[in-house]
């Protein structure tokens, strides 16, 4: 599956659906972003059931700001509408595959329970 360009117009709809979304915040001028792009694209081919989206931080400054992106690349993982991972830095293929495996293994009922407990004063 090819990666999808995420914009302010489609971000919420695509990333808050059921399933897993991997989001790469990047910019054309960023060397580490360009080095990570083939790894991200290859993973999207191996995992067609996952949404692989890219946010060009230069074109989508409002999205980058809303998600407090201060370093690129930044990778986010959203599962069933819940942000479960956010970290700056490019990953090598084995680390990205491990991250995908861990995202698949999450018990989302437990994740939601934990979030509800931390939100309660």
Automatic annotation (TrEMBL):
Homology family: Belongs to the thioredoxin family.
InterPro entries tied to this protein: Thioredoxin (IPR005746), Thioredoxin-like_sf (IPR036249), Thioredoxin_CS (IPR017937), Thioredoxin_domain (IPR013766)
Active site: 30, 33
CC per GO annotation: cytosol
UniProt GO MF annotations: protein-disulfide reductase activity
Intrachain disulfide bonds: 30-33
Protein name: Thioredoxin
Lineage top rank: taxon: Bacteria
Site (Deprotonates C-terminal active site Cys): residue numbering on this chain: 24
Residues with site note (Contributes to redox potential value): 31-32
Cross-referenced PROSITE patterns: THIOREDOXIN_1 (PS00194), THIOREDOXIN_2 (PS51352)
Matches recorded under Pfam families: Thioredoxin
Every Thioredoxin domain range: 1-105
Keywords: Disulfide bond, Electron transport, Redox-active center, Transport
């Amino acid at each position: 599956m090819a990666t999808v360009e995420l914009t302010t117009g489609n971000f919420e709809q695509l990333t808050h659906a059921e399933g897993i979304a991997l989001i790469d915040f990047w910019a054309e001028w960023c060397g580490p972003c360009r080095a990570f792009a083939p790894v991200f694209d290859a993973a999207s081919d191996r995992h067609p059931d996952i949404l692989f989206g890219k946010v060009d931080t230069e074109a989508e400054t409002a999205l980058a700001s809303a998600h407090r992106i201060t370093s690129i690349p930044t990778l986010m993982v959203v599962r069933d509408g819940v942000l479960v991972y956010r970290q700056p830095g490019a990953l090598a293929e084995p680390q990205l595959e491990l991250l995908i495996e861990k995202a698949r293994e999450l018990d989302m009922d437990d994740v939601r329970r934990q979030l509800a407990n931390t939100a309660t004063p």
